Amino acid sequence: MNPALVMNEPLQAENRSSLIQGMPPCPICGSKTYRDRTWDGKYTKTLGWRCEKGSLRHFLEAKAARIKRQLAENPWLLPPAPGYPGVRRDELMTWEECQAAYRQLHFEADDIPVV
Ligand SMILES: [Zn+2]
Questions:
Q1: How would DSSP label each residue in 33-84?
Q2: Least confident piece of the model among 5-9, 31-35, 55-59, 91-95
Q3: CA of 66 to the centre of ligand 1 (A)
Q4: What is the pTM of this model?
Q5: What span, in angstroms and rounded, lies between the C-alpha atoms of 106 and 83?
């Protein structure tokens, strides 16, 4: 028998069993997961699921961890170019941050009207 075929056999068996069981285990706790189509990623095309133990919480934790990792890998909204420093995603202010900064300013100087 061809040795390459023998070496591939356990891998193929693993693939078959994961297909039978359906979803991969929960990346947070390792428990079984089951499909939840309402949480399928519309844009990312990732499958929605719930964990047997952690339910939707583990799905959202895993999703948040993936988004954080992607942000760390690609922090640039506009990457730097020669003569341009670029804009990092974490440099942008949200409206909540703007409002908090405005309130802080008002707190320090009484003459600015509150919106
Ligand atoms: Zn879990």
A1: EEE-GGG--TTT-PPPEEETTTHHHHHHHHHHHHHHHHHHH--EEE--BTTB
A2: 5-9
A3: 15
A4: 0.54
A5: 37
Ligand 1 centroid to 111 CA: how many Å? 52
- As a whole number of angstroms, the distance between CA 52 and CA 29 comes to 10
Cβ pair 101, 114 in contact under 8 A: no
Rounded distance from Cα 62 to ligand 1 centre (Å): 9
Do 31 and 51 meet the contact criterion of CB atoms below 8 Å apart?
yes
pLDDT of residue 115: 59
Amino acid 48 reads G
**CA of 92 relative to ligand 1 center, distance in Å:** 33
Tell me the CA–centroid distance for residue 64 and ligand 1, in Å.
14
Q: What are the residue boundaries of the structural domains of the chain, listed by start?
A: 22-108
| 61 Cα to the center of ligand 1, angstroms | 9
